[in-house]
């Protein structure tokens, strides 16, 4: 407020200097002119004072509401976390630090204008680092008896990213709160009858995000509100910024399992085991009626047994076509490979024989669309919204966390490996799809339609997988009132 008043005084001083200059140049020293200038200064000063006072009031109200959240639900959460101790207490301190950093960010937003997108990302980086730190701590303590507590916090802490949601961030926070509820329900189930401390902890933590939703609804309903006046926001929450600041590198993601790499040449003879040769043979036999797709249809007027006069005609010889500009092969042009972020969508298109494709800078609101990629492997790090694989052949996909769905359509020979979690995998119009699940993704839903040769690989031990085929054939009967459908197996 002191800085704003100094700006006001400088503006009034400039106005006084202008009045003296105008008075001297015009030679008008009459009282009306002087009174007019003095009146104008008074109106101008009052207008600026009211505007700055209103801005200060909005800032004060916003921060006061956020401080109510910190003094209430957050304080209770810290108290109950200390009562439990161990990993839960340390995790709670990380959450508190993240919320304090967000308060600093909100204060800057209330007194500064919104910066350009690149600088805004730098400004949000401390909050993102806190989120990553909290999630990494859960991964480092998978053997803890309090793992459900850590998971509730880890799965919901991305709610702090509401400041980057452009429209209605409230529902986004509610979605993260629902993710926490899944694990707090497990905590309540385990401790409801035995230890009241854990029950109080679960309720206090969920109340943080309920209060956060109320705060957003009151002050930032349609997105984070930036100041309309004042300087442009700095590119760092640190004041002054220091270039020598050392940042600790994030630990690498868990190593992928069996690499989904394919042979570049389909016609290359395979020297694998007899079991692999039998699998290839069964894959051909399992095509059923599709095995005739490669045969050309011959019309009746070209069949020799129906037209004896054709038997005496010489068989036409095939002539080798030249690379003329009008030939179909010459007309087909190779499309340019593309891997870029377009808004909230990562586009990965038209790659051939590329096994080192990696997407690292991911956010929860982003989606990945993979189109027409063949003989390639793509790795996606971090947590994103969804992944779509469309019209691809012999593609390997390795990813960590997806909060929405992984969908495969119109593709062939796809291998998918889940390193952490995914709620739903959908496979449609696809021939050949191998899905390697992690221990954390065993409860995901797998939906398939019009697809064949689907196998789910379930972890067994540290480095082994057990294969389960997905049914492709079903039997439907009428029980007198409704249809009953169940998968069938072919004996043999």
TrEMBL record:
Residues 235-276, 301-330 are annotated as: Disordered. Pfam families: CAP_C, CAP_N, CAP_N-CM. The keyword Cell membrane applies. Residues 249-261 have a biased composition (Pro residues). It is found in: Cell membrane. InterPro entries: Adenylate_cyclase-assoc_CAP, Adenylate_cyclase-assoc_CAP_C, Adenylate_cyclase-assoc_CAP_N, C-CAP_CF_C-like, CAP/MinC_C, CAP_C_sf, CAP_CS_N, CAP_N. One of its GO terms (biological process) is actin filament organization. Residues 328-470 form the C-CAP/cofactor C-like domain. Keywords: Cell membrane, Membrane. PANTHER family: ADENYLYL CYCLASE-ASSOCIATED PROTEIN. This is Adenylyl cyclase-associated protein.
């Amino acid at each position: 407020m002191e800085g704003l008043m100094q700006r006001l005084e400088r503006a009034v001083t400039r106005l006084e200097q202008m009045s003296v200059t105008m008075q001297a140049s015009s030679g008008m020293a009459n009282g009306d002119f002087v009174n007019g200038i003095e009146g104008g200064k008074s109106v101008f000063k009052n207008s600026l004072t009211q505007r700055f006072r209103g801005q200060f009031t909005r800032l004060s109200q916003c921060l006061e509401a956020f401080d109510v959240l910190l003094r209430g639900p957050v304080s209770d959460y810290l108290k109950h976390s200390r009562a439990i101790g161990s990993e839960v207490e340390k995790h709670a301190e990380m959450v508190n630090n993240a919320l304090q950093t967000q308060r600093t960010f909100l204060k800057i937003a209330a007194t500064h204008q919104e910066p350009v997108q690149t600088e805004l990302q730098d400004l949000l980086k401390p909050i993102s680092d806190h989120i990553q730190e909290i999630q990494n701590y859960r991964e480092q303590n998978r053997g803890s008896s309090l793992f459900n507590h850590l998971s509730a916090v880890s799965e919901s802490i991305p709610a702090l990213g509401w400041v980057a949601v452009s429209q209605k961030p409230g529902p986004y926070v509610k979605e993260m709160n629902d993710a926490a509820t899944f694990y707090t329900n497990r905590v309540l189930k385990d401790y409801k009858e035995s230890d009241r401390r854990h029950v109080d902890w679960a309720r206090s933590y969920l109340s943080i995000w309920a209060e956060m939703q109320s705060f957003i609804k009151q002050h930032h309903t349609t997105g984070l509100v930036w100041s309309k006046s004042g300087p442009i926001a700095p590119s760092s929450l640190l004041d002054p910024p220091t270039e020598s600041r050392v940042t600790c590198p994030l630990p690498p993601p868990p190593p992928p399992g069996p690499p989904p790499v394919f042979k570049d040449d389909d016609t290359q003879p395979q020297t694998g085991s007899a079991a692999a040769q039998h699998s290839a043979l069964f894959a051909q036999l399992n095509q059923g009626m599709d095995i005739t797709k490669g045969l050309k249809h011959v019309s009746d007027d070209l069949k020799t047994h129906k037209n004896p006069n054709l038997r005496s005609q010489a068989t036409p010889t095939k002539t080798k076509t030249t690379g003329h500009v009008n030939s179909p092969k010459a007309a087909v042009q190779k499309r340019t490979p593309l891997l870029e972020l377009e808004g909230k969508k990562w586009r990965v298109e038209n790659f051939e024989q590329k096994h080192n494709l990696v997407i690292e800078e991911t956010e929860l609101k982003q989606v990945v669309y993979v189109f027409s990629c063949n003989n390639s492997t793509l790795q996606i790090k971090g947590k994103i919204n969804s992944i779509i694989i469309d019209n691809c052949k012999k593609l390997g996909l390795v990813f960590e966390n997806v909060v929405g769905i992984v969908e495969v359509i119109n593709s062939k020979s796809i291998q998918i490996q889940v390193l952490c979690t995914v709620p739903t995998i959908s496979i449609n119009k696809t021939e050949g799809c191998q899905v390697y699940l992690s221990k954390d993704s065993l409860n995901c839903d797998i939906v398939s339609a019009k697809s064949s040769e689907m196998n789910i690989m379930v972890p067994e031990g540290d480095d082994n997988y057990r294969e389960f085929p997905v049914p492709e054939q079903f039997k439907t009967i009428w029980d007198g009132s409704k249809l009953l459908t169940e998968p069938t197996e072919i004996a043999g």
